[in-house]
């Protein structure tokens, strides 16, 4: 127990130090960066630690162009994410309108936002990036998932609770079909949606709790 | 002249203070944030100050899905941007392959990356975001523009000079057709590509030089 306590103390101190600024960018992550070859765990970590990204849909209004839009999201309570991105969208914004016409979508995140890329260029492969390709649709008919998603969103983005009622924001979900992950040199890592959704997150959890 | 000197001194001191961290996020901008109702100038400022974003193309490999990808870019030397995003792409990456098949694309940036959104949620309309919709294609047959774009990219992203020659990186350009800008409450601001490309940047330039 003493050794375990010492290790926990060391780990917390280490990540406390990591929270300091690197190249002027603050580290925003709450759980340690997994080893890059633990591909599925790494992908889930990147999604879980992030709070926003770019959600791309097909724009009927602009000739079928791929339309990226900055969106806040959540995949669960902090460090308890399930890997599925949930959004709080209104049809006053083109993204929700697009998805209701054509569900094809992708959601793109950069590790650069977490502050853990150091001085590397955001496009350098050592600065991880992920794109989740799938179908974007309104969440309906599942009260348990609705409750999970609502708590996930409102915990990570408290301001959402106060977004105007009159704008009729609804919870949307991106069903995960394909994963494009780069977290080192050598091209995208092969990873299936099933591997991603069933990734072992226990190693990370044991450090952060 | 004394008054002008005093004003310049005050402006520099003010923006020097602004360079301090807001909510732990460092301010990365080198020119002052324009007034939000100077829409075209504001849009150009946001693009010029940014160094990366998400470039979305149509993925033939994934059923025509809109595919967002994290990309570094430049629209010119620091504070001398022309508003046209240039990229350095290789067909080893899906984005360049997609564009060679279908030029429809968009490029999305968030002010959140500049550190000037304070404590606001990244999706709050007071934290500006822009999407440039247009056609993405390889830059060919224009030595002057090629030289401009190459200098723009390599100055903002010095690492690009050392990217592997064997990957055959080429300069791509996003022709600006439509602009989606949100920088305050009330929905997207009406702004044409022509207004954007011809925006008056003199006020910003006079402060930063």
From TrEMBL, chains A, B:
<dbReference type="GO" id="GO:0005576">
    <property type="term" value="C:extracellular region"/>
</dbReference>
<keyword id="KW-0964">Secreted</keyword>
<dbReference type="InterPro" id="IPR055343">
    <property type="entry name" value="CREG_beta-barrel"/>
</dbReference>
<feature type="domain" description="CREG-like beta-barrel">
    <location>
        <begin position="36"/>
        <end position="197"/>
    </location>
</feature>
<dbReference type="GO" id="GO:0005737">
    <property type="term" value="C:cytoplasm"/>
</dbReference>
<protein>
    <submittedName>
        <fullName>Protein CREG1-like</fullName>
    </submittedName>
</protein>
<keyword id="KW-0325">Glycoprotein</keyword>
<dbReference type="Pfam" id="PF13883">
    <property type="entry name" value="CREG_beta-barrel"/>
</dbReference>
<dbReference type="InterPro" id="IPR014631">
    <property type="entry name" value="CREG"/>
</dbReference>
<comment type="similarity">
    <text>Belongs to the CREG family.</text>
</comment>
<feature type="signal peptide">
    <location>
        <begin position="1"/>
        <end position="24"/>
    </location>
</feature>
<dbReference type="InterPro" id="IPR012349">
    <property type="entry name" value="Split_barrel_FMN-bd"/>
</dbReference>
<keyword id="KW-0732">Signal</keyword>
């Amino acid at each position: 127990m003493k050794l375990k306590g010492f290790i926990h103390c060391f780990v917390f101190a280490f990540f406390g130090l990591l929270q300091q600024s690197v190249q002027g960018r603050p580290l925003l992550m709450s759980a340690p960066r997994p080893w890059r070859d633990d591909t599925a765990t790494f992908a889930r970590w990147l999604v879980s630690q992030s709070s926003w990204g770019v959600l791309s849909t097909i724009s009927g209004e602009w000739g079928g162009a791929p339309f990226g839009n900055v969106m806040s999201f959540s995949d669960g309570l902090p460090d308890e994410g399930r890997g599925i991105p949930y959004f709080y969208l209104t049809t006053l914004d083109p993204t929700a309108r697009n998805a209701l016409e054509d569900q094809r979508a992708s959601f793109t995140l950069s590790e650069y936002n977490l502050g853990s890329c150091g001085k590397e260029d955001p496009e350098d492969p050592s600065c991880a990036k992920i794109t989740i390709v799938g179908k974007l649709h309104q969440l309906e008919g599942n009260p348990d998932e609705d409750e999970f998603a609502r708590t996930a969103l409102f915990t990570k983005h408290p301001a959402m609770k106060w977004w105007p009622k009159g704008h009729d924001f609804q919870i949307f979900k991106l069903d995960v079909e394909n994963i494009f992950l780069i977290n080192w040199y050598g091209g995208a890592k092969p990873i299936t949606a099933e591997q991603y959704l069933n990734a072992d997150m226990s190693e990370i959890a044991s450090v952060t709790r």
